[in-house]
């Protein structure tokens, strides 16, 4: 059942507020059981459990806060987009990426989200990986 744009914006805002609070359970509660997660310049993972494992890996390597978040939604509330600035610290080396030693980075990013039955059914996140690598190298 379609949701309104206001409900979609509220859902996506709650999701990113939970991210900033490092409340991963609250983030996961916003997601459909079969959520599709498109990882920037990576593959697609399916399911809330896969998303939980991804967030655990990310939390080990990065400490991030999202600022200047702007959320937009289609009139029917089935699609949303978010743009934000990631302020982060690279804490621990991530596989295939440069060594970590507490480097700070600031990175524009965005996401496209699909909403189904008042839950986020897809999250596709995008940022400039080359810019991030240049900042932490």
In short:
The chain contains four helices and six strands. The chain is of the alpha+beta class and 137 residues long. Strand 3 (62-73) and strand 4 form a beta hairpin.
Number of domains: 1
Distance between the termini: 46 Å
| Number of H/I helices | 4
- Largest sheet report: 6 strands, mixed
Helices and strands, in order, run as HHEEHEEEEH
> Any guess at the CATH architecture?
Roll
CATH C-level category: Alpha Beta
Low-confidence stretches: none
- State the strand order across the main sheet: 2-1-6-5-4-3
CATH topology title:
Nuclear Transport Factor 2, Chain: A
Which value, in Å, is the CA radius of gyration? 15 Å
Structural class per helix/strand content? alpha+beta
Mean pLDDT: 95
Total strands: the figure is 6
| Overall geometry | globular
Topology, element by element:
Layout: H1 5-20, H2 24-29, E1 31-38, E2 44-46, H3 48-61, E3 62-73, E4 79-90, E5 103-116, E6 119-127, H4 129-136
Parallel strand pairs: 1-6
Antiparallel strand pairs: 1-2, 3-4, 4-5, 5-6
Give your account of this protein's structure:
- With 137 residues, the protein is α+β, with helices and mostly antiparallel strands.
- It has one domain: Nuclear Transport Factor 2, Chain: A (Roll).
- Helices cover 32% and strands 42% of the residues.
- It has a 6-stranded mixed beta sheet, sandwiched between helices.
């Amino acid at each position: 059942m379609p949701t309104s744009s206001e409900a979609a914006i509220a859902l996506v805002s709650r999701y990113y507020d939970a991210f900033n609070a490092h409340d991963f359970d609250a983030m996961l509660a916003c997601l459909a059981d079969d959520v599709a997660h498109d990882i920037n310049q990576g593959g697609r993972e399916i399911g809330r459990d896969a998303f939980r494992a991804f967030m655990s890996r990310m939390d080990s390597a990065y400490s991030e806060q999202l600022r200047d978040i702007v959320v937009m939604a289609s009139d029917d509330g089935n699609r949303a987009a978010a743009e934000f600035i990631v302020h982060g610290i690279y804490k621990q080396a991530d596989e295939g990426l440069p060594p970590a030693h507490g480097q700070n980075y600031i990175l524009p990013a965005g996401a496209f989200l699909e909403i189904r039955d008042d839950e986020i059914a897809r999250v596709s996140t995008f940022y400039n990986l080359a810019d991030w690598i240049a900042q932490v190298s």
